[in-house]
Design brief:
The protein has six helices and 14 strands. Strands 8, 9, 10, 11, 12, 13 and 14 form a seven-stranded antiparallel beta sheet that branches. A five-stranded antiparallel beta sheet has the order 1-2-3-7-6. Strand 10 and strand 11 form a beta hairpin. The radius of gyration is 17 Å and the shape is globular. The structure holds cytidine-5'-monophosphate. Keywords: ATP-binding, Ligase, Nucleotide-binding, Purine biosynthesis.
Length: 235
C-alpha cells in the first residue's frame, strides 16, 4: 500500500477505495514541535485502542468521526477527509502553554471552557490564531468554524463526563476536523494521552504525555493506566 502521509505519531496509507484510508499508529513521540524526540514503548498500540474506545463512545452519543473500524493492534480503517489546517484546543483547567502565557498556576479552574485555534503549520510552530485569521488566511469559513465549535462543545461535555466516571479530570485536549467529499465536517485524527491532559481526580497524578515532555518517567505505565480504566468502563 502506498503511504500518503507520515506525521509525527502516525502514517496514512491509501486503500483500494478512494474514500477510505488506513491510519497506522507508531510508537514515536515528539514534544515542543519536534525539538524533543523519542519513543514510548507500545504507544501506537495503546493510542489506537484508546482512540477507538473514545471514538465509539462519542459516536454512540451522536458525534460523527472518520473511524470506520479498527483493523488490528496498530491500524484503523477511516474515511478519507481533507484535514482542516487547524488544531482546536479546549481548556477546562489552566495548564501547559496557557499557564506559561498568562502566568496562571497550573491546575487553576476557569469560569468556562476556553476554545483556542492554532494554525497547523510545522514551520511556523502551530501559532495560536483567532477566527479572523482563519477566515482571512482561507484556512476555514465562518460556517466551518461555527460547526467545529458546536461539535467541540459537545465533545468536551461528553468527555468531561466520560473521564469523570473513570476518576480522571479532563484538563485540556486538542482535536482536529476533516471535510468529507460531500462537504461534511467530522472529527478526525486521534484522541489519546498524546492529545489530552488527564489528571487522576484523587491524587492529581498526570496520566498523559506531559510525563514524556517533562521527563517524569513511567510514561508507558500512564498510557496503560488510561487504557485499563477505559476498558473497564466499557464493560
Ligand atoms: O501545549 P498546550 O498547553 O497548548 O496544549 C494544550 C492541549 O493540546 C494539551 O492537551 C496537548 O496535549 C494538546 N496538544 C496537542 N498537539 C499539539 C499541541 C497541543 O495534542 N500540537
Amino acid at each position: 500500500m502506498r503511504m500518503l502521509y507520515e506525521g509525527k505519531a502516525k502514517q496514512i496509507f491509501e486503500t483500494e477505495n478512494p474514500e477510505e484510508i488506513i491510519v497506522h499508529y507508531k510508537d514515536d513521540a515528539t514534544a515542543g514541535n519536534g525539538e524533543k524526540k523519542g519513543t514510548i514503548e507500545n504507544k501506537g498500540v495503546l493510542n489506537n485502542k484508546i482512540t477507538t474506545l473514545i471514538y465509539k463512545y462519542l459516536m454512540k452519543h451522536g458525534i460523527k468521526t472518520h473511524l470506520i473500524k479498527t483493523i488490528n493492534e496498530r491500524d484503523q480503517l477511516c474515511r478519507k477527509v481533507d484535514i482542516l489546517p487547524l488544531e482546536v484546543i479546549v481548556r477546562n483547567v489552566i495548564a501547559g502553554s496557557a499557564a506559561k502565557a498568562y502566568h496562571i498556576d497550573e491546575g487553576t479552574e476557569v469560569k468556562e471552557p476556553i476554545f483556542e485555534i492554532c494554525w497547523k503549520d510545522d514551520n511556523l510552530g502551530d501559532p495560536l490564531i483567532n477566527d479572523y485569521h482563519a477566515i482571512a488566511f482561507g484556512l476555514a469559513t465562518r460556517e466551518e468554524l461555527d460547526e467545529m465549535y458546536a461539535q467541540v462543545k459537545k465533545i468536551n461535555e461528553l468527555m468531561i463526563e466520560m473521564w469523570d466516571h473513570m476518576g480522571i479530570r479532563l484538563i485540556d485536549f486538542k482535536v482536529e476536523f476533516g471535510k468529507t467529499s460531500d462537504g461534511e465536517i467530522i472529527l478526525a485524527d486521534e484522541i489519546s494521552p498524546d492529545t489530552c491532559r488527564l489528571w487522576d481526580k484523587e491524587t492529581n497524578e498526570k496520566l498523559d504525555k506531559d510525563r514524556f515532555r517533562r521527563d517524569m518517567g513511567n510514561v508507558e505505565e500512564a498510557y496503560e493506566e488510561i487504557f485499563a480504566r477505559l476498558e473497564k468502563k466499557e464493560d
